[in-house]
Design goal:
The protein is mainly α. Helix content is about 60%, strand content about 5%. The chain is built from eight helices and two strands; from the N terminus they run αααααββααα.
């Protein structure tokens, strides 16, 4: 299928840049929906999953501001998401030792166990992009980095 078929586009795009923009937006939403399906059985959202992975990867507790800076979706209400994770007992919050106005957030044992279960299904997550070979996936990564002007 092509983007024209996927969005039932009858008219032509202004140019290839316009088509690429629409294609990236459409593909991003398609990918997000597939990730939601992957996470559905654990009853967490992609933003919650992102925060859990950020906390697991941090060697020290993080404030909600530090978490937000590392998130894929910078527009997320980090405090609200952390509170939901706290209710699910997937994270722990403590008053910061350095600044009593801040809270330090860490991943809980239950949160680590949830990530372990999801890690065991990484092949399924990676399978969302099953149509791409490893070389094509690398090329896509390079092109997306170049698009954002963040080549290594």
């Amino acid at each position: 299928m092509s983007i024209n078929n996927d969005i039932q586009q009858q008219r032509h795009f202004r140019n290839e840049h316009h088509k690429a923009t629409v294609n990236i937006l459409f593909s991003s939403n398609w990918l997000l929906e597939n990730i939601k399906k992957f996470l559905q059985h654990e009853d967490i959202t992609p933003q919650q999953y992102n925060i859990l992975r950020i906390l697991r990867g941090s060697e020290t507790p993080l404030s909600t501001l530090q978490i937000r800076e590392r998130m894929l979706d910078k527009m997320s209400d980090t405090s609200r998401i952390v509170d939901r994770l706290l209710k699910k007992e997937l994270v722990e919050k403590k008053t910061s030792q350095n600044d009593k106005r801040l809270v330090d957030v860490t991943i809980s044992k239950k949160g680590l166990e949830l990530l372990d279960r999801l890690d065991n299904r990484n092949a399924s997550l990676d399978g969302i992009l099953f149509n791409l070979t490893p070389d094509e996936a690398k090329m896509l990564n390079d092109l997306l980095d170049k698009m954002r002007g963040s080549e290594e």
